[in-house]
Amino acid sequence: MSYHGKLIAAHEELEQAGVWKSNFNPPLFRILRKLGVESPPPYYRSFQSNFLTSFVFFTPVWGVLMYFFGWQASGKSLTETTITVLVGGLLYGLTTALYYSWKFKQCKLTRWDEL
Questions:
Q1: Counted domains in the chain
Q2: Residues of the domain holding 62
Q3: If exposure means fewest CB atoms within 10 Å of the residue's CB, which of 27, 50, 58, 76 is most exposed?
Q4: Does the pLDDT value for residue 101 go beyond 90?
Q5: Are 34 and 40 in contact (CB under 8 A)?
């Protein structure tokens, strides 16, 4: 089955499982698909893949925003800021990956390769 066919099947399966559309088709993945990246929905990706994606996209954005809108005025050093941002990004990535793994098992979804 083609990527597009698998994507449609996955979206239908997620809808039937009661998962909100905004959760199984988040903006980041819609943007990636428009750029030509054929990535499965987050529920069908591996734990490591979800962790890395969440970490890589969340950490720099959150870090820059927190630095300019809070930490810079408080006098936090760049080292302290960097450590805080990395720990926050790691926790966010871990939480996100755990959530998708847990929901995949809870909803008894079909593996991406088997769609």
A1: 1
A2: 3-114
A3: 27
A4: yes
A5: no
* Residue that has been written with the tokens 């819609």 in this structure: 30
Q: What's the confidence (pLDDT) of residue 4? A: 93
Rg of the Cα atoms in the chain: 17
Asked if 89 and 63 count as a contact pair (C-beta separation under 8 A), the reply is yes
Listing DSSP states for 17-54 in one string gives TT--HHHHS-HHHHHHHHTT-----GGGS-HHHHHHHH
Residues 44-95: tens digit of each pLDDT: 999 999 999 999 999 999 999 998 888 888 888 889 989 999 999 999 999 9
The chain-wide mean pLDDT, for the chain, equals 93
- CB 55 within 8 Å of CB 92: yes
Query: Among all chains, which residue has been given the structure tokens 């969440």?
Result: 54
Place of tokens 């959150």: 62
- CB-based burial label for 50 (10 Å; 0-12, 13-18, 19+): buried
Which residues, other chains included, contact 102 with Cβ-Cβ below 8 Å and sequence gap of 6+? Answer: none
CB 58 within 8 A of CB 87: no
